[in-house]
Amino acid sequence: xxDRNRNQSEERVKFCIEGEFCANCSAKMERALSVTEGxxxxxxxxxxKTVFLPPGMVGQAQAIIEKIEPGVKLVAAKxxxxxxxxxxxxxxIEGEFCPNCSAKMEQALSATEGxxxxxxxxxxKTVFLPPAMMSKAQEIMERIEPGVKLVPMEKxxxxxxVHSEEEEAKETRQKLLKILxxxxxxxxxxxFGSRWHNTSLEVLEYLVFLLAYGLVGYEVLGKAFRNxxxxxxxxxxxxxxxxxxxxxxxxxxxxxxGVMLFYAVGEYFEDRAVNRSRRSIQAVLNIRPDYANLxxxxxxxxxxxxxxxxxxxxxxxxxxxxxxxxxxxxxxxxVDTSALTGESVPRSVKVGDGVLAGMINTSGVITVxxxxxxxxxxxxxxxxxxxxxxxxxxxxxxxxxxxxRYYTPAVVVIALGIALIPPLFMxxxxxxxxxxxxxxxxxxxxxxxxxxxxxxxxGGIGGASRHGILVKGANYLEALTSVKTVIFDKTGTLxxxxxxxxxxxxxxxxxxxxxxxxxxTAEVHSSHPIAKSIRDKWGKAIDSASITHYEEISGxxxxxxxxxxxxxxxxxxxxxxxxxxxPELKTKGVGTQVYIAVDGEYAGLLxxxxxxxxxxxxxxxxxxxxxxxxxxxxGDQHNVAEAVAEQLGIQEYHGDLLPEDKVTWLENYQxxxxxxxxxxxxxxxxxxxxxxxxxxxxxxxxxxxxxxxxEAADVVLMEDRPDKLVSAMDIARxxxxxxxxxxxxxxxxxxxxxxxxxxxxxxxxxxxxxxxGVALLAILNATRVRxxxxxxxxxxxxxx
Length: 800
Known about the structure:
InterPro entries: ATPase_P-typ_cyto_dom_N, ATPase_P-typ_P_site, ATPase_P-typ_TM_dom_sf, ATPase_P-typ_transduc_dom_A_sf, ATPase_P-type_domA, Cation_Transport_ATPase_IB, HAD-like_sf, HAD_sf
Protein name: Cd(2+)-exporting ATPase
Number of helices: 25
Subcellular location: Cell membrane
Number of strands: 30
Structural class: alpha+beta
Mean pLDDT: 80
CATH class of the domain at 460-494 and 613-800: Alpha Beta
GO molecular function: ATP binding; ATP hydrolysis activity; metal ion binding; P-type cadmium transporter activity
Enzyme class: translocase
Oligomer: single chain
CATH architecture of the domain at 460-494 and 613-800: 3-Layer(aba) Sandwich
Strand content: 15-25%
Low-confidence stretches: 1-10, 78-86, 155-163, 791-796
Strand order of the largest sheet: 18-30-29-28-19-26-27
Shape: elongated
């Protein structure tokens, strides 16, 4: 396995696989490539849609995968642009459109040359597109949903957002007015219709009902007609139009008006629920500062954060958001970091400390020197990450999109069969069977399924960000529900990386104070954290002039001369290599052992330990209780790894590892699972970048202000708290639970009403109530995800 990976990195090139293909086809392509001479054993990363191939075999590989899945393309990874690449611009989609049409537009855009794979964020009504393809995209989208418009998103869009909200409120009032007027006409028709029927006033019956029908149905009829002209038949507008016009044809006027009216009522409440959910998610992400107080000589000017440059100074008053990343040059205060970390405890800051955009100054006035442009600030990276996370879809989301594509045509075929077969071949009453078919058409819209899944995942990602957990995509959120093994790095992840001398053992020739002085002086020039801990323990000034010779021996320790004596300080091997006899010691101390020798004789040792992080032991215990294997990989000595693992309750550990050894061990654990679970690696996001990238889910801890952590990992825990990993898994499980509740509930109701409609038990009224109701309940249920707070109680994960 290690050899193969080395070949992949040295002799192979990374390719992205563009186009839609399922996990099953991915496995087929992987098998076909692996048995091809010249390619050999190959792994397709289905989640990332990538594969490593020999450059000379790309043409043959393209032919192989296209034979299995027509339309997919291999593109060199460096040529492929990410969703939020500078080559693409974010656009807002203005106008009304349903989730089913959103999926259709997304599919059409992704299949268009020059645009490529694209995701429409239905919750936020945004999409990333190449600017040069904007006109083409507008044409495609308008063909599917007339009236929608693409508008470039601007960073300085606060006023535009207010205007958009006012327009939205105005449209909502107009819809409500139409519904109320139509409802009044329907009530009049129901009261007087039976009296007018089959009389000279029958025209009034038709007039009242058709006025009501036209008020709430003309938009639906118009869209259906335009879509038919464009060749798009199977959408909810067509279904509702056919069902209600059929009802009018058989003189079921109240049914026709009632179905269209309650469909409009359902659309009204759905729009309100989705808009409320959208605003809630936007509120979660509303950490972007609106202005900065730029210090210009003796003046302070209020400017946009994007107009401030590196090196300039800004003034931040109590209650104001920190607008840009920088360093405090004057004043002290407490800052609220909850918007970034989810932790509400104020943090003390003073001159020399760094502050990040998105924090809130809670007390004193501080002056900050800007160290990053706004576009590169931590808050902007977080906003981009969360807003664009929907580009990476979960398997569940892809399944529902595909299911909806076939579900509606299938139901229409069933309805057509019910309308024609019994009257033609079984002597049934045509009017009765046509009514049953129309009842089925009413329930056949897949909106409840299509809308609730992405809304649920987006809510989960937004809710996680409230707690200082950044998840880069719905696929990673879903993967967190299938974790079987969690691998931890030790230093900086489970332990604080703050070393302290906790035990001193001396030979009979030295006291503890003498040995500590010798060790501290010998280590005076070393920058290693262990050396610093020895000097801190000594706590007195050290005369570096007393060191006449100093030499660092890589990976072993230090040789120096102190007061005319040769001092060795480091690993036991250093002393043994210099023919110094080291006695066998039965020390009970836990930590790194620094052996000291003076003039060729053993003098003693220092035991230096690293403090465990708060919550590390509880986190490991919860993972173990849930049946998840816990592993620790570290470059520390085997005995140190053993002691830490025993202290924290970790099931397996491996010490004395180099970075490449960690990758090998990670792959071994992945092989053990054979694809039947996910392996998580938790590290600091900087030194562990290769392992984070190779893991099924890479989790970087302590990502606040760390670009390396945000870039390398799939999940970023903004605070240095191991228990946030359990919180992330908890949110993921709850999100998946809610989503499958929606899927199950919607399918049961819809399939149930199809059967009831076939049997003639359900009426069109009941069908429209069911269709609207299930969509509304699915939306409301999905919004529970962003409000989920049970994770704060540190409840144990459910057993696997």
